[in-house]
């Protein structure tokens, strides 16, 4: 039963850290975008975009970038957890 408590404690700390990181990045970016007229530029870019097959490359690039970010986060968590086990 003690192992489950460790897992819950670790999960709650990870969730709190991720929530803090997301809020620290998303809230200022959203405020900047809302006050800078970036939305108008994005709408104009979407209107001017041609429909010629570039959507798949953009989707693939976005998925690849997301995959790299998730892999980096998993790698950091694994390295941190390994270092914690060695200290004990």
TrEMBL record:
Organism: Actinoplanes siamensis
Keyword annotations: Membrane, Signal, Transmembrane, Transmembrane helix
Transmembrane feature ranges: 57-80
Protein name per UniProt: DUF4190 domain-containing protein
Signal peptide, first to last residue: 1-33
Tree of life domain: Bacteria
Keyword check for Transmembrane: yes
């Amino acid at each position: 039963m003690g192992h489950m408590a460790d897992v819950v404690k670790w999960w709650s700390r990870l969730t709190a850290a991720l929530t803090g990181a997301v809020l620290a990045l998303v809230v200022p970016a959203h405020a900047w975008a809302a006050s800078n007229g970036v939305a108008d530029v994005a709408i104009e870019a979407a209107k001017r975009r041609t429909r010629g097959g570039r959507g798949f490359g953009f989707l693939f690039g976005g998925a690849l970038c997301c995959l790299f970010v998730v892999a980096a986060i998993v790698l950091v968590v694994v390295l941190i957890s390994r270092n914690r086990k060695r200290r004990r």
